[in-house]
Design brief:
The protein is mainly α. It has one domain. Helix content is 61%, strand content 1%. It contains 21 helices and 2 strands. Strands 1-2 form a two-stranded parallel sheet. Helix 14 packs across helix 16 and helix 14 runs antiparallel to helix 17. It is globular, with a radius of gyration of 22 Å.
Amino acid sequence: MTGLPVPFVFAPKGNFPMKHLQRETAIVVYPLLIFYVLLVVRSAWISDDGMITFRVVENFLAGYGLGYNPFVRVQVFTHPLWMFVISLPYFVAGLFVSSAPNALFYIMVFLSVLFSLLAVFLLLSRISKPGLLPLGLAVLMLSLSNGFIDFSTSGMENPLTHFLLAVFVVAYLAENPNLFLLSLLSSLIMLNRADSLVLVAPALAYAWWTSAQRKSNLVKIFVGLIPMLLWELFSLFYFGFPFPNTAYAKLNTGVSGVSLALQGFDYFLNSINWDPIVFFSIGLAGVTLFFERNGKFIFLFAGVLLYLAYIVKIGGDFMAGRFLTAPLFLSTAIISNQLAAKRSQLVGLGVAILLGAFSLRSPLWASNMVLYLPTYPISDHNRISDQRLHYFGNDNKGQYNSFVENGFLNPELGSEFAGGEWHFTGFRQVYVADALGKPGYKKGPNIYV
């Protein structure tokens, strides 16, 4: 046995680099992967925004269109690719089981865990330098981040984004990167969430600029972007707008740019306070590249910085940590590949353990804090909230609704109208709510939400 097996889909072809994990290293890697997956499964949950997508999936598969309400062409989801990815197995499952109230939740959890595991596996086997320290540092930086663990499920697009970023980095680090493949992956990343293109655009530009045949490669880049362009054309025709309705609703509020920027910086301060390992990792990646000066990784890190600037521009988000998981993943990839000195690796590992394991919001015990600390804050003074604790702590007084804690048949995770019971016979009433996901999914298609 010379190393950890690599899935055939990602087997090296041509100039793809191959990283072998030796038997001694694999002994450590497997437990670390299991540790990460156990944390993800233990924390598996569904956000209100995730249930908004569930209602769209039900309408789509029932033939009622891609809207939140049947036959109403409004794009309420920000992740077309993720929506279609969870729709396919749900459709197949529906061929065998006509109605299962919680089916979408479990399909979402399975796919989220799968993509999260593949992303971390690629990070360890194809991106990170071999060795116990860089591999251990990579896994712990992700596993001890409350935001990264929480949004490794949640019903949002983050797990698929992490996986696509991992594949992109593997292709990008090839000696002679395939520009078509990089462009195609960039297109898929944007289809999964439009603003995520910012993360990889500098690296794609660098790969093109340093290529031997810029003119022909420019054509390859254009061809690779066709899936994204086709979706934008479809969106313009079907919905009337190129981007999701939520983008226009949230970014055109009349709030000044200065106020948004200040709120964006508050979003960062929230992360430093609640999930300090995130900005430690981003900072360590920057310091590492300052000394290593590797051009490829510098442009990869430029995507991280641009994305952080974008977060400031839009005023952050109300979900603590959600927008920072992708920058954390790329920063961890940079550190695991470029941080060479063993002393630096040891220091980084020690600080990561201190910040991650001894934070009150560490994934190791954050789920139990509201049980023992009644005043444990779920939102900060800027209304940036720990969404998992909000839905599975505050709403249920400490009784979390993850399937690990409350069982597989918990009705809170699904809808009695799911699957074969999703029949539209006409709108019976209008229901107004501030949080649309959970009530909308539970009330079925005949209530206009």
